[in-house]
Write a structure and sequence with these properties.
Elements lengths: L6 H5 L9 E7 L4 E2 L4 E8 L7 E4 L5 E2 L10 H8 L6 E8 L1 H5 L9 E8 L5 E7 L4 E3 L2
Parallel strand pairs: 1-8
Antiparallel strand pairs: 1-2, 1-5, 3-4, 3-6, 6-7, 8-9
Length: about 140
């Protein structure tokens, strides 16, 4: 018996590899994802601070890919860090919330979340629940 496959399934490109650190922003005033927020990711320790990797949240409020200077890759950086100090690192995510809500429409011009990562553990996803006067995060 012949196997039947749809043309779209047969020609679908493989999904890009998931970055080791991703984030997601939800706007608590609308109950919806927060698109178009500029986000930077910086390695603080060891060897830091590094040049920041940057991204902008997508229409669903997510950052799944980062851009860096001269094509630097978060995945490559993670692989190298896993070999040093047991892979234990400290990172910073900065969210430009002032531009998202508008000047003087929020108490926080930016939100910075610092967190520990063990590069050997794989993927870290950092959600940010955001309002103009408060925020929270979790893992």
């Amino acid at each position: 018996m012949d196997k039947i496959t749809s043309p779209s399934a047969a020609s679908a490109a493989p999904a890009p590899a998931r970055e080791p650190i991703t984030c997601h922003v939800l706007d608590l005033t609308t109950g919806r994802p927060a698109p178009s927020i500029a986000v930077s990711l910086t390695l603080l320790r060891p060897f830091g601070p590094s040049a920041p990797l940057t991204a902008v949240t997508s229409s669903d409020g997510r950052v799944n890919q980062w851009s860096g200077e001269a094509g630097s890759s978060l995945t490559e950086l993670f692989a190298n860090l896993a070999e040093h100090d047991g892979g234990h690192t400290v990172w910073s995510l900065k969210f430009n919330t002032g531009d998202y809500f508008g000047t003087h429409q929020t108490f926080f011009p930016e939100v910075e979340v610092k967190f520990f990562v063990n590069a050997k553990d794989g993927h870290y996803h950092v959600p940010l629940l955001l309002g103009p006067w408060s925020y929270t995060t979790y893992r």
